[in-house]
Hints:
The chain is of the alpha+beta class and 313 residues long. It contains 6 helices and 20 strands.
Amino acid sequence: MKALLKKWITGSSIPQEYLCLGARDCHRPLSVFIRSSPFTSRIEVTHKHYFLGYKPLIIGISVRTGDSLLNDEIQMDFCFENEEVVATLQLKRFQNKFLGDTNILFYQGIDGRHHFISPIYQKVNAFIESLKRKSPDNVDLPGNLYDQVRIAYCIPRLISLITVFDGSRMNLFPTDLHGALGNDFYLGSLRIGGEACGQVDRLRRIVISEIDKGQFRLAYGLGKRHMQPMADRSSFHLEEAVSANFGFPLPAEVGVYRELEYFDHFDVSIHRIFIYRTVNATVIKNIDPLTHVHRYYAQWRENRKLETHYLFR
């Protein structure tokens, strides 16, 4: 009854803002396309874009060096069955980096529109959000920025764990703002001023691990480690094995890990965008990697009767 009342008022009965699921549990997912204008042909970037920031919204798009560059302003369409557009982002380019034979174009969100829930419910929820007391630990996402972020999370975002280690003490914390750029480079973003960002800045080497979806509570529980100092390895749930080159501790139920070393960085508002070189990538075992999505998209899937197995915390 409570869930039905909540859905009647807000358009969604889902109790959590973000829902965990395995990467293989999202059947019939959305595809992502970009176009430079309503009249140009579209380019699929479902697996060639990188969500790297939420204040502002930051999206990286990879193109091969020598290919025609995209316009400074583009539209990103999120499509069901490759045809029905259920959400759009308007983006403006602010940076690009050449990495080997790849050019990474970095875009900032300008505007976002979606049909995950009705416009009336979107307005109701915006009013309810405005009445909530904001936690000092949370980043405020004013106006349309919140919708831009919701749209970015309609694609299941991989939650991986980052290990930093100085030979005696370590830290282990989750990230979903990251992605492999071919075999040689890796992109990731951390919040400026956080302990985690400072540790990466100082130590210049990390291991990033994909973990099994069964570790979803552990991953969310480690979120507080972004703002905590390094600790003894006995404080963490780890594998017996260590990484091949760096000898870093590995988290429990790791499937794939990458050893990365600092290459470059730049700052955008609250975010530090790190570019790493990939030193080594190792497959430990076959897992269903942990991801998560926003509840608006989950509600849209439920309304469409698209079967999905979520992991509720």
